[in-house]
Amino acid sequence: MLRLGVLPTPAVAHLTAALGADFGVMLSASHNPAPDNGIKFLARGGFKLSDAVEDEVERRLGEDWDRPVGSAVGRVRDAYGEVDRYISHVLTSVNGQLDGLDIVVDCAHGAAHMVAPEALLRAGARVEAIGARPDGLNINAGHGSTHLDKLQQVVVSRGADVGIAYDGDADRCLAVDHTGAIVDGDQIMAVLAADMHAKGTLAKDTVVATVMSNLGFKLAMRDAGINVIETAVGDRYVLERMKSDGFNLGGEQSGHVIMLDHATTGDGLLTSLHLLSVMARTGTSLQELASIMTPLPQILINVKDVDRGKSAVNELTDAVAVAEAELGETGRVLIRPSGTEPMIRVMVEASSKDQATKVAERLADVVRVACV
């Protein structure tokens, strides 16, 4: 067994494939606090396990087995030096350098605290790292992609060009432009998709997103001549569709972006390098690049203590049809039952926040009455 040390999940995924390992294991709280630490498994080749395999693993956990003892247990060998292999990999995926860019990077007191600043420095950027002092307990605490306030403050006070925020295991990233405005995963995907489309490297002129991606993203891609394929919520479903149909770019609004030409999973460092590369190569600010799409106001109401199995009852589907007719092409309704809780999620997008709120509240009231 090889012990890699503190590395992002996508680094473990890459090294699982590069070193020909049978599987990879990552211990991380992901974007959650330290008490939520868990285990991520990666199959041979660096891909996440399928739902079917995960279910089979869980099913067999209680089985009796012949536990190895003594020398049969095996040996652990430290392979901390492999971090350079990963950094070199992500840097070689980017054409050009980041010379002249002034970047603030928030590492969420997590797995990217060493590799992200080092990679950005090697690419030629000026870098200030925050959230880069993990103590084993402070992962995602007040820093990272789930807590952007500190990054916004530092970017503006420093007069930096851009801020990048990773989550604890660095498989996702969000950004902040020079004014402190947040650039989310949909906007990042839009910038990358448009750039790849212009270079002729976007497979089948298509990007894969989930049903939760903002309608503004889909409208922007339509205007750019790019197709959008939707999947269920979850990066594994995005990846499955990308692999099955030969697409090379996909992701989620949360900043989990998959660039399948270079990685087997979402990779926050890789994503940020490609985003920053577009800025450096074109001499365009992130604010201007992100303006390719205008996010529509999005209201999400979680209606609790209802029967999630009744999300398709006639009363609700009729109410949704009325709402969709009212919103037209500049709005959208999504009704999603929770997979684990007695809850139905009502999401509405519209051209104004007031309209989105009114429609969402009206539909939530229908759920409370019709789905009990």
Automatic annotation (TrEMBL):
<dbReference type="Pfam" id="PF02880">
    <property type="entry name" value="PGM_PMM_III"/>
</dbReference>
<feature type="domain" description="Alpha-D-phosphohexomutase alpha/beta/alpha">
    <location>
        <begin position="3"/>
        <end position="61"/>
    </location>
</feature>
<comment type="function">
    <text>Catalyzes the conversion of glucosamine-6-phosphate to glucosamine-1-phosphate.</text>
</comment>
<feature type="domain" description="Alpha-D-phosphohexomutase alpha/beta/alpha">
    <location>
        <begin position="184"/>
        <end position="293"/>
    </location>
</feature>
<dbReference type="InterPro" id="IPR050060">
    <property type="entry name" value="Phosphoglucosamine_mutase"/>
</dbReference>
<dbReference type="InterPro" id="IPR005841">
    <property type="entry name" value="Alpha-D-phosphohexomutase_SF"/>
</dbReference>
<dbReference type="GO" id="GO:0008966">
    <property type="term" value="F:phosphoglucosamine mutase activity"/>
</dbReference>
<dbReference type="GO" id="GO:0000287">
    <property type="term" value="F:magnesium ion binding"/>
</dbReference>
<dbReference type="GO" id="GO:0009252">
    <property type="term" value="P:peptidoglycan biosynthetic process"/>
</dbReference>
<dbReference type="GO" id="GO:0006048">
    <property type="term" value="P:UDP-N-acetylglucosamine biosynthetic process"/>
</dbReference>
<feature type="domain" description="Alpha-D-phosphohexomutase C-terminal">
    <location>
        <begin position="300"/>
        <end position="365"/>
    </location>
</feature>
<keyword id="KW-0460">Magnesium</keyword>
<dbReference type="GO" id="GO:0005975">
    <property type="term" value="P:carbohydrate metabolic process"/>
</dbReference>
<dbReference type="InterPro" id="IPR036900">
    <property type="entry name" value="A-D-PHexomutase_C_sf"/>
</dbReference>
<dbReference type="InterPro" id="IPR016066">
    <property type="entry name" value="A-D-PHexomutase_CS"/>
</dbReference>
<dbReference type="InterPro" id="IPR006352">
    <property type="entry name" value="GlmM_bact"/>
</dbReference>
<keyword id="KW-0479">Metal-binding</keyword>
<dbReference type="InterPro" id="IPR005845">
    <property type="entry name" value="A-D-PHexomutase_a/b/a-II"/>
</dbReference>
<keyword id="KW-0597">Phosphoprotein</keyword>
<dbReference type="InterPro" id="IPR005843">
    <property type="entry name" value="A-D-PHexomutase_C"/>
</dbReference>
<comment type="similarity">
    <text>Belongs to the phosphohexose mutase family.</text>
</comment>
<protein>
    <recommendedName>
        <fullName>Phosphoglucosamine mutase</fullName>
        <ecNumber>5.4.2.10</ecNumber>
    </recommendedName>
</protein>
<keyword id="KW-0413">Isomerase</keyword>
<dbReference type="InterPro" id="IPR016055">
    <property type="entry name" value="A-D-PHexomutase_a/b/a-I/II/III"/>
</dbReference>
<dbReference type="Pfam" id="PF02878">
    <property type="entry name" value="PGM_PMM_I"/>
</dbReference>
<dbReference type="Pfam" id="PF00408">
    <property type="entry name" value="PGM_PMM_IV"/>
</dbReference>
<dbReference type="GO" id="GO:0004615">
    <property type="term" value="F:phosphomannomutase activity"/>
</dbReference>
<feature type="domain" description="Alpha-D-phosphohexomutase alpha/beta/alpha">
    <location>
        <begin position="84"/>
        <end position="180"/>
    </location>
</feature>
<dbReference type="InterPro" id="IPR005844">
    <property type="entry name" value="A-D-PHexomutase_a/b/a-I"/>
</dbReference>
<dbReference type="Pfam" id="PF02879">
    <property type="entry name" value="PGM_PMM_II"/>
</dbReference>
<dbReference type="GO" id="GO:0005829">
    <property type="term" value="C:cytosol"/>
</dbReference>
<dbReference type="InterPro" id="IPR005846">
    <property type="entry name" value="A-D-PHexomutase_a/b/a-III"/>
</dbReference>
